[in-house]
Amino acid sequence: MSEALVYNPNERADICLLLEGTFPYVRGGVSTWVKQIIEGMPELTFSIIFLGAHDGDYEEPAYEIPSNVIHIELHYLLGDGEVVEVAKKKPFWKPAPSKKPQFDKNSELHSILSNSEGVVSDEVARSFARLLIGPGAITEAELQHSKQSWLTIKEKYEEAPDGLDFNHFFWTIRAMHGPLFTLAKIARNAPVANVYHSVSTGYAGFLGSLLSTQTGAPYIISEHGIYTKERELDLAQVDWIPEELDPFKVGLNDNMNYLRSVWIRFFQSLGRMSYASANEVYTLYNGNRIRQIADGAPEDKLTIVPNGVNVERFRKIRRDDNAIVPPIVALIGRVVPIKDIKNFIRAMRIIRAKVPGAEGWLVGPQDEDPDYTRECKLLVDSLDLGNCVKFLGFQSPDDIFPKIGLSVLTSVSEGQPLVVLEGYAAGIPTVTTDVGSCSELVYGVSDEDIAIGASGAVVPIANPSEFAEAVIKLLGDEDNWRSARDAAVKRVETYYDEKDMIKRYRDIYQSQIDLVDPEFRAKAS
Fold this sequence. Notes:
By secondary structure, the protein is α/β, with parallel strands linked by helices. It folds into 2 domains: 337 residues, Rossmann fold (3-Layer(aba) Sandwich); 186 residues, Glycogen Phosphorylase B (Rossmann fold, 3-Layer(aba) Sandwich), CATH 3.40.50. Helix content is 46%, strand content 14%. It is globular.
C-alpha cells in the first residue's frame, strides 16, 4: 500500500531521497541528519520516498516538512496479519505464460550471489533489477502462483538441511521476496529527479538500484549505521522463526538457525547490489568504511564525510564556566533494544549508590517497541529506581542539555551519533559504549585531534559496572569533568561543524547533477 502525502510527483526534484524507517515519520539521529541536509540547501528541491513496514504505523510526520520538499510519498512493504501455514496436497499454481528464461536467469544470479563474497558486478545488480522492472519482468502473482516459482523454491529447499520444515521455508521465501515487488511498483511510478540518494542499503538501497537501472540517473548512498549489521542484531532476537521448525544451527553464531541465516544473506545480497549500482558511497568514519568493504562496497567508490552539528545553535545554551554541574545523566535516544536501555538502568543503580542525588533521564520516543519499553519500566521498578530513573519521552535537546551533566549512550550498535556531537557543542561530555565511531569522537583520530584530549570515556558494551564507574569518575571530579568539557567543545568546533558537512554534500550533489546527460535532463524538465 502507498500514500502520496504532499505536492506534485510530476515536478522534477534535484534530489530524490530514499528513506527507510526514518525522516519524516521516525525521530532519531538519521532523521535529524536528513533534515539538516534538506534545510542546509534551500536552493535545491527534494522529493522523498519513505518506506515503512505496516499500514497505520505512521500517522503524522514527526517533523515539520521543509519548504524545499516538493513531494513525499509513503509506502508500506509488509502486509497486515500473520501468514497461515497450510499443507497442500496438490500444487496451487495457476496457468500462466511460461517465464522459464526469467526464472532460469533468477537462479543463475542467485547462484552468483550465493557462491561469491564481497563485491558483485554492476551487471549482476542491474540484471536482478531488470527481472523486476524490465520487459517480461517476473510479477508478484507469478512468485505466488506460477509452477516455475514452485519448482525454484523446491530446488532451493533441497539445498537446506534435511528435516527442515518445508512449509515454513516456503512461506519464508515468499515473505522475503514480496517487498521487492512493491519496490518495483514504486520504481515504475517514482517521482522524476536528477539524482537518487539512499540513506541506507536494505530495501531503500535496492530501490535506488532499481531507479538507477530504470532511469539512468545518478544514484548515491550514505550509510550511518551498517544496515546489514543491524539486521543481524534484529534477526538474532526475533521470535517469529520458531526453533522447533528450524533447529539447525549454522554459521554466524551458535544461536543462529538456518532460516535466520537465509534472511541475513538476503539483506547482505541487497546491500551488495545497492553498492554495485551506486555511483558513489559515503560513510561517516573509517570503521564503517572497513565494514562496508567487507560487505561488498567497492573500495574506489567509498568516501568518508563525517557528521556535523549546528555549533552556533548549541553554543548559546552552554553553562557558565563556574556553574554547578548537576549529577544528571541523560540517554537521549529511542527506547529500543539496540540502545540497550536495560544496561543504562542497571548502571544507574550503581551510580545512585555512589553519587548522591544522581538521576538517569531517558529522553526519546517510547512507542517504537512497546514491549521493550514495558520491560525497561518493570526493570526500573524491580531495582527500586523509580525515584531517579525517569522516562521523559521526546524532548528538544536545547531544553535538556542545560539541565544535565553527561550525555550518554549504552548502544550495541551506532554509526557516528549526532547526539554526542550536539552535547559537545552544548558543552556536555559523554560516556558511551565502544560502538561505531564513539572512540574516535571521545579520544580523537589524527595526532592533532588526539592532542585535544578525552571528551569523556568509552567502555565495553553490556557492562553496567564499567559504565557506572566511568560516569562516577566524571561526575565526582569537577576538574576531570571540565577537562572533558573543554575537549568536547574544541573537538566539535574543529572537526564536526555542520557548515563543513553541508558544503561537502552540496559539492557531492552538484557533481552528480553534472553527470546527468542532456536527454535525461530534457525529459525530466
